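Support request from a user on the community tier.

User writes: "When I paste my structure tokens into the form, the page sometimes reloads and wipes my input. The last time it worked, I copied everything first. Here is what I submitted, just in case something in the input itself triggers the reload:"
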């Protein structure tokens, strides 16, 4: 980290970020693949069912833009973040305006939507990542049209000055921060997050002062952590961060290509979380969370797939569906009667993880036949 510090940080050295070599993401092949896309089109645009701030069901448009990407990623980067696939350091302000127009075209001008999530693979209101005139346009336009807005940010970039600038243009919008873990050791050594829990707490109080809403992401099972630890720790973190947040979204690890977690996954040193662990976490924390003002969401992205949270394959679809239903109903009965032979395997793994001294865990890492295990890298 030391060698790259200051390149973007203080503006003293105006070294072009391109010169950094971050293998394997910056190999000529990766760069040419990454630069093959059209900078005037957003990466992804889709609509999903959502809930408004007051709890009313609605439709939300999600717009994932192609941007210069996260300053932190260019310097160092989180161990699980594969956003660099959608970034490029030559995206211009004109491109971003064009991407926004294209997003509106694809959604029929946000038809039927009451909420827009604007994801920029980094911090929305960081001027080195996104041009301020574009930020301003998005904030104002969504506000004038009465659309609820969610943007993302890193904690240490939530300066009171910038937050009040944001709040003047879109009062009451939601800022989602990827906290991942409420534990400084985990942030530093498992996530390489680039900020501390103290910085996060400060950003939460600054967000409140600016009248903005706080959404917190937690990461279930960061790399270099056993299943048992992930389960126990995430339950604790959830109980601690929920009272400070308006909304908490627990994201079970899904492995994105060419990240650190991808490397250890391919080396059979990491298995994405079990769906049973998510069910167990929900059951353990339900009573404390359900009556609080904080809304919690567990959405297993790529659930049931080998790179997402999964069980034994046979029961995956059923368990994912129950977790999704719970996110809406808040009713533990969704999990009644769910069972499978693999639950015993999971239970044994958890109890071994918590009783034997092996920090990376005891579980079988891959869901493959023995022959494929030998073959697969
Ligand atoms: S701060 Fe966010 S965008 Fe930046 S590297 Fe970490 S996860 Fe990725
Ligand atoms: Zn099963």
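"...and here is what came back when it finally went through:"
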């Amino acid at each position: 980290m030391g060698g790259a510090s200051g390149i973007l940080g203080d503006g003293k050295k105006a070294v072009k970020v391109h010169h950094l070599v971050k293998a394997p993401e910056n190999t000529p092949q990766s760069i040419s693949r990454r630069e093959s896309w059209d900078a005037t089109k957003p990466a992804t645009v889709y609509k999903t069912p959502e809930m408004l701030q007051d709890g009313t069901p609605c439709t939300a448009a999600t717009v994932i833009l192609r941007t210069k990407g996260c300053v932190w990623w260019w310097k160092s980067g989180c161990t699980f973040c594969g956003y660099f696939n959608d970034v490029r350091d030559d995206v211009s302000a004109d491109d971003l305006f064009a991407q926004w127009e294209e997003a509106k075209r694809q959604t029929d001008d946000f038809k039927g939507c009451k909420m827009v999530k604007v994801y920029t693979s980094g911090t929305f209101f960081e001027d080195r990542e996104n041009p301020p005139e574009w930020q301003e346009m998005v904030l104002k336009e969504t506000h004038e049209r009465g659309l609820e807005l969610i943007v993302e940010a890193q904690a240490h970039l939530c300066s009171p000055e910038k937050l009040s600038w944001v709040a003047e243009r879109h009062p009451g919008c939601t800022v989602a921060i990827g906290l991942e873990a409420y534990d400084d050791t985990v942030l530093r050594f498992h996530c390489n997050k680039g900020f501390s829990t103290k910085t996060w707490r400060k950003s939460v109080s600054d967000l409140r002062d600016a009248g903005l809403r706080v959404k917190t992401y937690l990461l279930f099972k960061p790399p270099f952590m056993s299943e048992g630890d992930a389960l126990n720790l995430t339950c604790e973190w959830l109980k601690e961060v929920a009272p400070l947040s308006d909304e908490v979204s627990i994201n079970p690890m899904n492995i994105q290509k060419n990240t650190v977690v991808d490397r250890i996954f391919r080396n059979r040193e990491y298995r994405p979380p079990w769906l049973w662990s998510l069910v167990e976490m929900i059951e353990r924390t339900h009573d404390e969370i359900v009556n609080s003002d904080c809304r919690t969401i567990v959405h297993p992205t790529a659930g049931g797939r080998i790179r997402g949270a999964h069980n034994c394959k046979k029961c995956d679809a059923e368990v994912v569906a129950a977790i999704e239903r719970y996110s809406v109903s808040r009713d533990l009965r969704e999990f009644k009667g769910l069972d499978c032979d693999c639950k015993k395997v999971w239970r044994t793994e958890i109890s071994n993880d918590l009783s034997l001294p092996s920090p990376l865990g005891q579980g079988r890492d891959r869901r493959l036949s023995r022959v494929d295990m030998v073959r697969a890298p």
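Agent notes: The reload is a front-end session timeout and is unrelated to the input. The first strand starts at residue 44 and ends at 51. The first helix runs from residue 28 to 34. Escalated to web team.
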